[in-house]
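Exam revision sheet. Question 4 asks you to relate a sequence to its structure. Input first:
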Amino acid sequence: MEQRNLILAFALSMAVLFGWSAIFPQKEQAQQQTVQEAPHAAVASQASVQPAGDANPSIPESTTSSQPSQSSPAITTSFPDEHYTIGNNLLSLTMNARGWFTEAELKQYHVSIEPGAANVSVLSMTDEGRSVYVNSGVMNRSIQKPFTVLNKSANTMTLQATLDNGLTWQRKITLAQDSYIVDIEDRILGGAGQKIYRQVVERDPDKKLNTFYEHMGPTALLNGKLQEPDYKDLDSSSVRMMAVGGWTAIMNRYFIAALISNPEQDYPYYFKGDGRSYQAGVIDSGTLDGKDNLFHSRMFLGPKSLTVLKKAGEGLDRSINYGWFAFISKPMHSFLLWLYTYVGNFGFCIILLVLSIKILFFWPTQKSYESMAAMRKLQPEMARMKELYGDDRQKMSQEMMALYKKHKVNPMGGCLPIIIQIPVFFALYKVLLMSIEMRQAPFIGWIHDMSVQDPYFVLPVLMGISMFVQQRLNPTPPDPMQAKVMQFLPPVFTVLFLFFPAGLVLYWVVNNTLSILQQKLVMKRMNVE
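Answer key, structure tokens:
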């Protein structure tokens, strides 16, 4: 019984911790780690980035100063208020005369489920509130004459600017149909030896959204390793590393703006922050094309959909980090998407998922309920032992173990359903929390979004009721203190589940209901009241 108590305590502790994190998300100090050095990288907060074939270049000045600079939209230096837009059926992208990408609007995603809601913007540069944009520049150079359009077609735009040293900077932007990837070709005419930096800039982020169970903000995949620096760490020191290919990005739960490098080229990457503005950037040495220096890069501006990200390649799907239970979350996510192609409603897909898990674990669960039913039969005998041995816990434990052995009852058997459900619970939580397919996905009636809490708390209340009924079917713990603790579990879990995604609570309600039916059938077959 001591082992059973331990497991129940562990399950409850995990639920309380998980619920507290969901209600009051904070970044755990133990999880606040500076991004470590990637393979073949030289990471030092005071060292300069070392791109291949060059000595001692520094991070662009625009990333190291908190004053208005090339990374801050506060600048108004004699640049015309010109904006150039290119788009396809999925994305509308805007660049200003300075060469910054200031707006990227997704045409198939909306900020809310309300009719007429605005489209989601992966890039958006505003004077107040959170801004995300992409800027670039030639190292140690400034623009003398701003970008103007040379020619433009349905999916291609060519622009040109003049640098302060008289060199011409040409940029060709290509955005194909059915794609969230923007191809960019920069050319410095007669500019051998020139370098370009590119960076995604995030200003005034909501740092509380970056929690120990879900990373948001600066991210990169360098040398096959996912890098997730914390805002607070970047406030104290920059992070710099070398990598072959890779990508660097700013992301939130559902959308990402990523800079994708050429897979065969070495690049210096950096992260930088000053408490207000954060940059995820890369320095590109380019390749010689005659007397010109040529730079080719790509941007992904779109949803964090596994299907879309895998199609884009370059390991962008790694930006969806399911954590410890990824080995459960990924097949669960794929199974739900497969069901959706036939059912067309993620709520019913979750119900079918529960049925599938029940079928998969039917035999161990059946044995567990048979064990609990057998223990319930022994309740009168256990009560007699308690009266007989009183406070002699050692003798009581010995006699109870002998009783279990005589009737071939496993007291640990009743814990099996809890043990099985814990990893499934956390895996499904990650799937519902991070899968963009669940975003704004309706179920029935009042539930219009399975990824957020039930607005009227109906499902959490039903979950609490089902948990109470299930508890009544279980044998009463012989320890009075344990019995009192168990009585508080339904209301405690009900309160915790008030703030969980509706899809997750639906899973738990259906699971408890099926468990009650299975348990009652077992008790009826074994003649247990």
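Marking note for examiners. The CA atoms of residues 49 and 239 lie 10 Å apart.
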